[in-house]
Design brief:
555 residues; 22 strands; zinc; C8orf32 fold
């Protein structure tokens, strides 16, 4: 309890707030909602989306420590034992200190296991204890009702109460996993016994949320009787709430009763065996194996796969506009050097817009930028596709600014930037825009729905169609084969002329080697197989021409 009460300290909270790129996460949260088709969102939806972005940011910004690097030469170390904490370490809750010796220079490096979140926002490193401690603190900094979950089989994570769903949500910052409570029992193969949620408002036994084998778990709960566990936790909770008003008491008791009913029902739910969950991802393989947390060898997939709607009309509009600009250059025999110059200027303008605060995007045009709009009528079409407008003949300096649709601009700008980057890369590599090689192409399909063989958050199936290079559809079982099924919006029938695949900035050996396309209406017919493909590493596009595939959907 002393630990979680530190989360409420205003001084600690103010220090933590300064370490988070709040506006960036707010923008990403609104973009994530827009990708689901939610452009006008409620506060609860925005708060929920921000929480998920906070989780993803934390996963990227905090560092896992197997063994610390040498303080002297920054090389690998090996643990040699435990040491006594120094006063400066005790000050921030480090009751244990691990001692490591450098494998190269033999210097000693200390790894104090800090418990004070104020110190953790500075060190930004540790194992599951530090990760969950610090992330739960960040949740409290942003006003979420949060619990630190202590698992007696040696793991720690977070729960937050979601006003959007009206229930407690599981969050594991080490794994970057959200709302997947069976991860430990089904994925890691953990033999759970007690999982206790600790917050400023009380202590709760929430083990039932994390198991579908309650009778097995019950047989391992041997510390004391179940009645004694309940009595102890109720007594602590009563003390935690002693200073609250009667209305606050009633609200918390109502929430407790609802949660108790949910947990009781959870023990009767069956496991969905069609959903496989991964073993532990954080920590070295040796460390995970020693803890028996690697899970099953064939358990790779992280989530079930709902049908998802592609919110990508802006991608098609951007590609149409850029295609029109390139066609203009091609038809008028504009020298390639001039084309590159125009796109470099255009890219600089869009990058400046992207770097501006999303709430007030505006960039003053220099002479080169103004010339683009004077010589290219289709440049206005590109701005419109990004929800931008040029203000060339108004009082003050000529500028480009958002047209008021802030989130649409945030959603579309990265797409336009990536497309311009690819155009520039092609021209600088002497790959010019011709009828034989066209990127981007007009008449791109959009706004359909997509279903995947599997997916891993946040790399969901729609990421394959969002026009952004850095996002990707990730299929954890892809080594065994995978598929996407795309259904055209509104039940239309369309003729598929070609499709593109782009390699992620990842391992090329995991990219597809055989890419058949089949209509959804007549499986096995209209098939266009591409065999023995090897896509080079890092954002390489390959186009496949297709013949005689007319359908409402493709797989």
């Amino acid at each position: 309890m002393r630990q979680v009460l530190k989360y409420e300290d205003p001084v600690r909270q103010e220090a933590a707030l300064k370490t988070v790129p709040v506006d960036e996460l707010k923008e990403k949260a609104l973009i994530s909602l827009a990708k689901e088709g939610i452009f006008s969102s409620s506060k609860n939806e925005e708060d929920h989306a921000f929480l998920l972005q906070l989780l993803l940011w934390f996963k990227q910004s905090f560092r896992w420590v197997n063994a610390p690097a040498c303080d002297i030469c920054d090389r690998e170390t090996s643990m040699v034992g435990m040491g006594n904490p120094l006063p400066s370490e005790i000050e921030f809750g480090a009751s244990r200190v691990e001692i490591y010796r450098c494998n190269h220079c033999s210097s000693i490096t200390r790894f104090p296991r800090y418990n004070d979140p104020y110190k953790l926002i500075q060190t930004r490193k540790g194992r599951c204890g530090e990760w969950a401690n610090c992330f739960t603190f960040y949740c409290r900094v942003f006003g979420y009702e949060a619990r630190l979950i202590l698992d007696f089989t040696d793991h720690v994570w977070t729960e937050c109460f979601s006003n959007l769903y009206g229930r407690w949500i599981h969050l594991d910052p080490c794994e970057g996993v959200y709302d997947n409570p069976l991860l430990y029992e089904k994925g890691w193969n953990k033999k759970l016994d007690y999982a206790i949620g600790i917050s400023k408002d009380g202590v709760h036994d929430i083990t039932k949320r994390y198991t579908r084998k309650w009778h097995e778990v019950l047989s391992r709960r041997t510390i004391t009787s179940e009645d004694t566990v309940s009595a102890i936790l109720m007594n602590i909770t009563r003390k935690c709430r002693s200073g609250l008003s009667s209305n606050e008491h009633l609200a918390l008791e109502k929430r407790d009763r609802k949660e108790s009913e949910e947990l009781s029902k959870a023990t009767y739910l069956e496991v969905n065996n069609s959903i496989s969950l991964p073993g532990r991802q954080s920590g070295s393989v040796e460390w995970r194996a020693a803890r028996s947390e690697l899970g099953q060898a064939d358990s790779l997939s992280c989530s079930s796969c709902p049908i998802r709607r592609c919110v990508d009309a802006h991608v098609s509009k951007i590609h149409d506009a850029l295609s029109a600009i390139l066609s203009h250059f091609c038809d008028n025999n504009i020298p390639n050097e001039r084309i590159i110059e125009v796109f470099v200027t255009l890219r600089s303008l869009m990058q400046n817009l992207k770097d501006a605060n999303f709430k007030s995007r505006r960039v003053t045009l220099d002479q080169k930028s103004q010339q683009i709009f004077e010589i290219l009528p289709s440049a206005e079409r590109l701005l419109s596709a990004i929800s931008l407008k040029a203000e060339l003949h108004t009082v003050g300096d000529p500028s480009v600014a958002t047209d008021g649709n802030l989130i649409h601009t945030s959603l579309a700008l990265p797409v336009a930037l990536d497309a311009v980057d690819e155009i520039l890369s092609n021209y600088k590599s002497n790959i010019f825009y011709t009828k034989g090689h066209q990127f981007p192409r007009g008449n791109r399909l959009c706004s359909g729905s997509v279903l995947a063989s599997s997916e891993q958050l946040v790399c969901v199936a729609t990421a394959a169609f969002d026009g952004i290079r850095l996002s990707k559809w990730e299929e954890p079982d892809g080594a065994k084969g995978c598929w996407l099924m795309y259904k055209v919006h509104g039940g239309q029938t369309c003729e598929l002329e070609s499709y593109d695949l782009m390699s992620a900035n990842d391992a090329p050996e995991r990219d597809p080697m055989d890419c058949p396309t089949t209509t959804g209406d007549t499986p096995g017919q209209g098939r266009a197989s591409q065999l023995n493909i090897f896509i080079s590493w890092g954002f390489v596009r390959i186009r496949f021409q297709v013949k005689n595939i007319i359908s409402r959907s493709w797989r």
